[in-house]
UniProtKB/TrEMBL annotation:
Domain EamA: 6-139, 150-285
Protein name: DMT family transporter
Domain of life where this protein originates: Bacteria
Organism, scientific name: Alistipes onderdonkii
Family according to the record: Belongs to the EamA transporter family.
Localization in the cell: Membrane
Length: 323
């Protein structure tokens, strides 16, 4: 397999595994677990996993004082994004929720346009209209029923907080911090939200069956470690923009599992809505700097030397040294 094919394969695996959240979360809901408890254990299992990766890469856990407050805030943002998304599964099909979440790159573009005065291009405006059209198709079903308002608001809160995090993690105060270390502390500080919401651990729902523990561990491994590791490798082979565009497989994976395993409805209207959102987000990622922002969030490992250096679309040397 040549280098480019390997990169696209890894990018596809990264996106597909990232879209597996509903596959492992919904059985836990069915067993009586609440979203806070599910996410509490997901973060709890992921933290030592990332800590081990951090030590394996020869990194330390030291932080400068000026980095602590931004990381606490970013951790709470990520925890809020996770919580609102997992709460939305109680109000709508998980596949639809994952598709709606996929509009977060559009929020990134809007934040950069209105918050940091980046030019809002005609292409970006067109992509926003396409995404809104896609959401409109998803919002009203073929039987005339509409999506649950609470669920829709929760997903939009998740996408917006996710986008704010992506922009925030790219600010100068954290630019010199290795991404793996950032992610470790973001999850560590984000865990605090669930600890508080669960009465400091007193209200946590502990699984009583072994296979439920397997689901919790899978949440920490597949959508977290494997997805991020494959993302990093894909970036090395094909660059940041193609890797970010391959993220379109995330909602596709969620929809696939929702329909095939959980019996969720898939109509022509829903298919058209999903397609419009995927096209809009892919165009906006390809057309501006959004891909670079998304990649900074997703990368966990330093760039490894490849036999063929200097490929088009790769990250700059100064960025590589920070990872």
């Amino acid at each position: 397999m040549n280098t480019k094919a390997k990169g696209y394969l890894l990018g596809a695996v990264a996106a597909a595994t990232y879209g597996m959240n509903p596959l492992f979360a919904l059985p836990l809901y069915k067993a009586g677990m609440d979203p806070d408890s599910v996410l509490f254990f997901r973060y709890l299992f992921a933290i030592p996993l990332l800590g081990t990766m951090l030590k394996a890469r020869g990194r330390d856990f030291k932080l400068h004082r000026r980095e602590i407050v931004p990381l606490v805030l970013l951790g709470l943002l990520v925890a809020l994004s996770s919580l609102s998304l997992f709460l939305s599964y109680n109000y709508m099909d998980a596949g639809i929720a994952s598709t709606l979440l996929f509009v977060y790159p559009i929020f990134v573009a809007l934040i950069m346009a209105f918050g940091f005065r980046e030019k809002l291009s005609p292409q970006t405006a067109l992509c926003i209209l396409l995404a809104l059209a896609g959401i409109g198709l998803l919002f009203k079903g073929s039987d005339g029923s509409t999506l649950n308002i609470t669920g829709t608001v929760l997903v939009m809160v998740s996408a917006l907080s996710y986008a704010i995090y992506i922009v925030g993690v790219n600010r100068p105060v954290l630019k010199s911090v290795a991404t793996l270390k950032v992610t470790f502390y973001v999850l560590l500080f984000g865990l605090l939200l669930y600890v508080v919401r669960l009465d400091f651990g007193m209200a946590v729902h502990v699984p009583d069956k072994w296979y439920l523990w397997g689901n919790l561990l899978a949440l920490a491994v597949f959508p977290t470690a494997i997805s991020f590791l494959c993302t990093t490798s894909a970036i090395q082979y094909i660059g940041s923009t193609p890797t970010a565009i391959l993220g379109a497989l995330e909602p596709v994976t969620a929809v696939f599992f929702g329909v095939m395993i959980f019996g969720e409805t898939l109509t022509l209207r829903i298919c058209c809505g999903i397609l419009l959102i995927i096209i809009a987000v892919s165009l906006i990622v390809a057309g501006n700097r959004v891909a670079a922002y998304i990649v900074r969030f997703r990368k966990l490992f330093p760039r490894l030397p490849l036999k063929k250096a200097g490929r088009k679309g790769s990250d700059s040397p100064d960025r590589q040294s920070r990872e």
